[in-house]
Amino acid sequence: MIAPVTGFSKKTKKEKIDWLLSTYLQNDTEALATLKKYWNSDTALQQLHDDFIENTISNYYLPLGVAPNFKINDRLYTLPMVIEESSVVAAASNAAKFWLERGGFKAKVIGTEKNGQIHLNFFGKETLLKHFFEAVKPKLIASIEAIQTNMKRRGGGLLDIVLKNSSEKLSGYYQLHCTFETLDAMGANFINSCLEEIARTFETEATTFKSFSETEKPEVVLSILSNYVPECLVRAEVSCQVSQLDTKDFDGKTFAAKFVRAVNIAKAEPRRAVTHNKGIMNGIDAVILATGNDFRAVEAGVHAYAAKDGTYTSLTHASVKDDVFTFSIEIPLALGTVGGLTSLHPMVKFAFNLLQSPNAKQLMEITAVAGLAQNFAAIRSLVTTGIQKGHMKMHLMNILNQLQTTSEEKQKAVQYFKDHPISHSSVLTFVESMRN
Ligand code: MEV
């Protein structure tokens, strides 16, 4: 029986590892060697990473790939992409090249408003709460003056506070719905600090507001930003003449019709929409990770947006009108190019330099394009050759690496599998036959 550990967070890194090894890993020296292999020999850099989170014992690498030739609003970008899945970067690069020759991507930020709520209990008369709120609203705003100073100087800050009656959804449930402009910051810390201060002021003022009886004072349940940001929205699009879509497998017209049908299937069927949107997130998450943004926040917000009309549906839209094929995406993205990891993580700094130091709006546009490109590549494969052909080619390398093949063995295998079906067992058999 394993006993619970006490004071774990106070232990040194070595003590933590010793405890893990002796408790779960039979003091396996190989496990220790693996952890150590991933430590950075630059102790300052290692310390930086140790300090990002708690109880750090080693680093966990993901590959950073790049996808060149993205023409976005007439500017050429090479996208940094952090992802473990093979084919994603190749697919992005192919889509970028395809659209480079057809005018590139157009992207536009529709809005940048973020929001957060102070969730309240109030079981008294609504008119009383409304009256109180209107009376204290200037004090609520004044209470965050110090927190807002810098943000306001740069042109951002709190936009408004609105009292919302949500008691039809849940008895006694009201909200102070607060909206913010956070400019180039994702703004989570700023918004949460503002909300907690407003909530404190609201409760303090409520205690001295005479019209509330002792039993009907509003009470703060919790205050937090929302990761649902439908007012922080970006749109990206590609379009061309249908005749420009000719491929070796299809003429443009057939391809466009199949493509539009595939998107419409994702619009109609949530089971397909989830996978369709997952493909979009392959591109989006990869750029979000490379630029040190919060992919969990983006994932949650994007999927909620996909279900905003009551049914989960496709985030992309495709149409053919007057012989013009148009393919677009509209998604909420709360991203930052300052604050958080952006100035701390050397690889994130590299990614921003590679992207020519975008501001948050430009990063929203670039990221939306990554999602659109990824979806284009996936659907193009799905309605033509299927995805396995390209996928397995990339997968072959992973299998060969797993089997610790030499570069000579790799070359032979790549040659052989050009015209043989790739599966884990077929590669294993081939490698074994080479070695025998
Ligand atoms: C795989 O990671 C993504 C796809 O399944 C997306 C899709 O089906 O559209 C290929």
UniProtKB/TrEMBL annotation:
Keywords: NAD, Oxidoreductase. Gene3D superfamilies: 1.10.8.660, 3-hydroxy-3-methylglutaryl-coenzyme A Reductase, Chain A, domain 2. It catalyses: (R)-mevalonate + 2 NAD(+) + CoA = (3S)-3-hydroxy-3-methylglutaryl-CoA + 2 NADH + 2 H(+). Its EC number is 1.1.1.88. GO terms for biological process: coenzyme A metabolic process. SUPFAM superfamilies: NAD-binding domain of HMG-CoA reductase, Substrate-binding domain of HMG-CoA reductase. It is an enzyme of class 1 (oxidoreductase). One of its GO terms (molecular function) is hydroxymethylglutaryl-CoA reductase (NADPH) activity. Pathway: Metabolic intermediate metabolism; (R)-mevalonate degradation; (S)-3-hydroxy-3-methylglutaryl-CoA from (R)-mevalonate: step 1/1. It comes from the Bacteria. InterPro entries: HMG_CoA_Rdtase (IPR002202), HMG_CoA_Rdtase_bac-typ (IPR004553), HMG_CoA_Rdtase_cat_sf (IPR023074), HMG_CoA_Rdtase_NAD(P)-bd_sf (IPR009023), HMG_CoA_Rdtase_sub-bd_dom_sf (IPR009029). Belongs to the HMG-CoA reductase family. This is 3-hydroxy-3-methylglutaryl coenzyme A reductase.
